[in-house]
Amino acid sequence: MSYARFVSIVAAACLLGVNPVMRATSISGQDTAPPEALQRPLDQILDLYVRDGLVYYRALRSERGRLDRYIASLNVPAATYDAWSREHKMAFWINAYNAFVLQTVIDRYPIKGGSKSYPPNSIRQIPGAFEQIKHRAAGRSVTLDEIEKTILPQFKEPRVYLALGRGAVGSGRLRSEAYTGDRIMQQLDAIQQQFVSERTMVRIDRAAGQVSVTPIVSWHDAEFIAVYDKSPSGPLAERSAVERAIVAFISPRLLPLEKEFLQKNEFKVTYHPFDWRLNDLTGGRPE
C-alpha cells in the first residue's frame, strides 16, 4: 500500500470513528500501518498523563481504554517487524516496554505491598512484574526482563536503558512523548544531555571527591564500555574500563569546574541505590 493510500484510509477511518491503524490492517488483510503511525496513540497517552517523568496513574487507570488498544496493536506480524529499520525497531521496543510497565502498574493500582525489601507502592511489590508477566509484541511473548536483557542488547546502544521507565523514581525520566524511528537518535541525545542534571542519574560531589552514578550503568556495564571506552590511555588509563566509559559519557555535558575535577583524576566512582518508589504524580510529587 502506498503512503498516499494509507493517508486516505486514515482520513476515512477518522470520519467513521474507527482506529486508523486497525482500519489500515483490516482493509489490506495484513498490518501495513507505518511504524510511526503505530506509535501515535502512545504519544498522545504520554503527552496527557506524564509530567516531568512522573505519571498520573489514577487518571490513566480510569481511562485505560486507549492504552489497552495501543498495547493490543503492538502484536504486529513478525514479518512486518522484520521489515523495519534498526531505528524503528529500537523505538518500538522502548515504547513497548514503557507501555507494558504502565499497564502492569494500573492493573494493580494503587499498589500496597508488604515486602520489606521495597517501598510499599513500588512496582516491585507486584509479583513477577519484570520476570514472569508475559506481554505480546511483534509476534512474540516476552517479559519486561526479556526485552531489557535479550532484545535491546541487540542494538548495541546503551542509552536505550536510560529510556526505560521501569515505573520507578530512579529510572531514566519517562518522556511525555513516544520514541519514533525518525527521531530516536535525537531523543537519545537529549537523554544523554539530561543525564548530568538528574540526581537520580549522576551526582558529582567535588568536596567529597566522589562521582555517584545510577546502578543502571552497572547493570549494562559491558555495553557502556563497548561504546564509550574508546581510548584507554592518558590520565585515566589506570581506571577501570567502566569508570573510563562513565567519564566519556558524561564529560561533554559537564560544567567547566566539573570537567576540571574529573581531569585531576582524584575522584572515586560509586553507584547509589536505585530508588524503587513508584513514579506516581497522583496526589503530588514523591518527596
What would you say this structure looks like, in words?
The chain is 45% helix and 8% strand. The protein is mainly α. The protein has a 3-stranded mixed beta sheet. Helix 1 (3-16) packs across helix 2 (20-28), helix 3 (35-49) runs antiparallel to helix 5 and helix 5 packs antiparallel against helix 7. The longest helix is centred in the middle third of the chain and has 21 residues, at 86-106. The protein is globular, with a radius of gyration of 21 Å. The model is unreliable at 1-32 (pLDDT under 50).
SSE layout and pairings?
Elements: H1 3-16, H2 20-28, H3 35-49, E1 50-51, E2 54-55, H4 57-62, H5 65-73, H6 78-82, H7 86-106, E3 135-137, E4 140-142, H8 144-151, H9 184-195, E5 202-205, E6 210-213, H10 215-219, H11 221-228, H12 241-250, H13 256-263, E7 268-271
Helix pairs in contact: 1-2, 3-5, 3-7, 5-7, 7-8, 11-12
What is the gist of this entry?
With 287 residues, this protein is mainly α. Helix content is 45%, strand content 8%.
Query: What structural category do the secondary elements indicate?
Result: mainly alpha
What proportion of the residues is helical, as a percent range? 40-55%
Query: How large a portion of the residues is in β-strands, by DSSP E?
Result: 5-15%
| Number of distinct helices | 13
- Taken in chain order, the helices and strands follow as HHHEEHHHHEEHHEEHHHHE
Gross geometry: globular
* Strands ordered across the widest β-sheet: 5-6-7
Mean pLDDT, to the nearest integer, reads 90
Could you tell me the radius of gyration in angstroms? 21 Å
- How far apart are the termini? 51 Å
The overall strand count is 7
The multimeric state of the shown protein is single chain
| Uncertain regions spanning at least 5 consecutive residues | 1-32
The main β sheet shows up as: 3 strands, mixed
